[in-house]
Inverse folding.
């Protein structure tokens, strides 16, 4: 199984690295992560860019689904991402907590809650991953 | 009116800058932009990260809505972002082309198509912007 | 406050009545309801029509939001509905259980889980309600 | 190929019949339909129920995808439905006009615009259909 540390090593030079995303736990039905509110995740008004939540949700759902299907010769591919923004965040750390809502043969669905340092809900995401046979 | 060049200057140190997003045209009912496929927008497998499309859609919808409502003392705040991923992209440039589907008093809705250099549809987004009075 | 029984009386000749929707509990942060699997909610293949889940989610979120904002002179209007379909249902009763995820001044967000008689998750919905001043 | 008239015959006693949905054209990349604004599609306030648009979009996408994949031994199953509501409608006819945005091996995506008799946009839907081998 691909370990979180392997993924982290590979992620340094990717979007995850550019935005400072950190994956904490990635079990089969739960995934957690966080990112610090630096300029790299802000939009011009100084609040966290909506795309940062959407991207973090995508990273969380993709990484954990991939880790649990690739042992069977499958890959996980993002199919859709629906993120709603509830409360602006300007500083501190954003905490993501996701749980798997569906595990089908061809798709997994995750829902991720994002909270600020005070535990207030800031954004919610639903991510659908397609599970497909790995290319030869 | 805030000009594209002003926004660009302010965007250098933000998520837009970190991911290399470029806004091209931002009229009242059309918005276009693009980003190059560098490592900063890739996920670990080498394809464009789904969050890059979602974030670019958010940037495009936010910037152009903001530019057209703030003259009336309003701001534009992202409310929801629904992005579907159709085709993986590994290199070249991703081109975004958005049109406004709804202009209400309190919300604007944009739909953005993303294509690769060959003109193939790669992702589609629907972004809902809330329009609110600017804080004092 | 508008009572569930008032809403039910008014609902007999509406979509809710046509599809057999029943509202059970509608508190400020929780809403439950159900509908029997009759032909009126099936599609031609004999399974529950995806639109039945979406419509029931809309009814649940609208009714309970309306009941809790109209005392302040506001109305609740559906803004968006995102429903994912997880498992086909052919008979029995579909049970909806919703909780409020966001209560803002201008929007409320509900997430509703639908299960079959065996408690298996069949569909999930996220509904955004716009809260607006009631027309004079 | 299953004909529209066959589907219509089978639809009389289903949700489509209960809500008065009518399918007009269903080609491989375009689908149109309509429904009259009767009490069966209204919510208690007298406007068209949001679920009616979502359900009609589901019917349109499902029927036309099914018609074009079942010759190859496949079926089409609704996977997700995202509908945004733009303008209330109280009477007349609602007209749906959909176009296919994606045709993959395992999923098709449709976007449907709904207009009133004056041609004003009332709702927009994005429906993702999963294409799967027909059960034996």
């Amino acid at each position: 199984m691909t370990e979180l540390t392997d993924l982290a090593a590979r992620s340094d030079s990717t979007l995850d690295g550019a935005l400072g995303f950190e994956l904490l736990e990635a079990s089969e039905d739960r995934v957690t992560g966080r990112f610090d509110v630096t300029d790299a995740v802000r939009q011009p008004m100084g609040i966290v860019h909506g795309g940062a939540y959407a991207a973090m949700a995508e990273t969380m759902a993709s990484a954990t689904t991939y880790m649990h299907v690739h042992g069977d010769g499958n890959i996980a591919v993002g199919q859709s991402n629906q993120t709603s923004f509830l409360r602006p965040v300007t500083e501190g750390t954003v905490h993501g907590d996701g749980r798997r809502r569906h595990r089908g043969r061809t798709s997994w669905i995750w829902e991720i809650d994002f909270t600020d340092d005070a535990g207030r809900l800031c954004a919610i995401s639903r991510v659908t991953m397609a599970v497909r046979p790995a290319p030869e």
About this structure: Strands of chain B lie at 21-26, 30-36, 74-85, 93-103, 107-115, 121-133. The mean pLDDT of chain B is 93.
